[in-house]
Write a structure and sequence with these properties.
Layout (H helix, E strand, L loop, with lengths): L24 H12 L9 H4 E6 L5 E3 L2 H12 L9 E6 L4 E8 L2 E8 L4 E6 L13 H8 L2 E2 L7 E3 L12 E3 L6 H14 L4 H6 L1
Parallel strand pairs: 8-9
Antiparallel strand pairs: 1-2, 1-3, 3-4, 4-5, 5-6, 6-7
Length: 205
């Protein structure tokens, strides 16, 4: 009689949950895009706004896909790539403007440069950069840097000396934020150390 019993039902198959790949490109493209156009969103076409390039440590500039340039952008931010090795360059189409990434240790910034006048049209310290710790003072500091000249000199940017008897040597002298001198100095050092890497690019373009 036991042999005539109901056959056991096969165990129900459990499907593995789908693998979800985090989209890191879109938030990065929005950060970059907003520097060129504050109204830029994920619904806009990054490729319609930018021509993407990679600049190597020999000063050679090569056209690249937006995927490759954003990959390098992320690798630099993660510390997996030297900031001056295959650096991403985002030229805004039909303009003289270009967006560059500057990074030194935990300090990083996105800068918008007008190639025609060699001025820093804008600069942003996105979340994650140590300079963003300026909080509500970030805007005040940013405004001092916006519109300034880029000379590539060793002292292109300098904080106003704390001692009034010391004469500043910088081409662009900015006022640090009270209580945040170290962070402001990190920003100035970032600009002085990283912008000269792009000198060959600007001189040939």
């Amino acid at each position: 009689m036991a042999a005539c019993g109901q056959p056991e039902k096969p165990a129900a198959k459990t499907e593995a949950p789908p693998v979800v790949t985090e989209d890191l490109h879109t938030p990065s493209m929005i950060q970059i895009g907003k520097l060129a156009d504050p109204s830029f969103t994920s619904a806009d076409d990054f490729g319609e706004l930018f021509e993407s390039y990679l600049l190597d440590d020999q000063g050679n500039i090569n056209a690249a896909t937006e995927s490759a340039t954003v990959d390098n952008y992320l690798a630099i931010l993660d510390g997996d790539m030297d900031p001056i090795t295959q650096a991403p360059v985002f030229e805004i189409k039909d303009t003289d403007s270009v967006v560059l990434l500057l990074k030194d240790k935990k300090a990083w910034a996105l800068v918008l440069v007008d190639k025609g006048t060699m001025t820093m049209a804008d600069i942003q310290f996105p979340k994650g950069s140590s300079i963003a710790k300026l909080g509500s003072n970030s805007e005040k500091f940013r405004q001092q840097l916006s519109g300034t000249s880029i000379t590539f000199s060793e002292n292109n940017f300098e904080l106003i000396p704390w001692d009034e008897q010391i004469k500043p040597k910088g081409d662009v002298v900015v006022d640090g934020i009270s209580g945040a001198t170290t962070i402001c100095q990190a920003s100035v050092d970032l600009l002085n150390q990283q912008l000269p890497f792009y000198r060959s690019y600007f001189e040939s373009n």
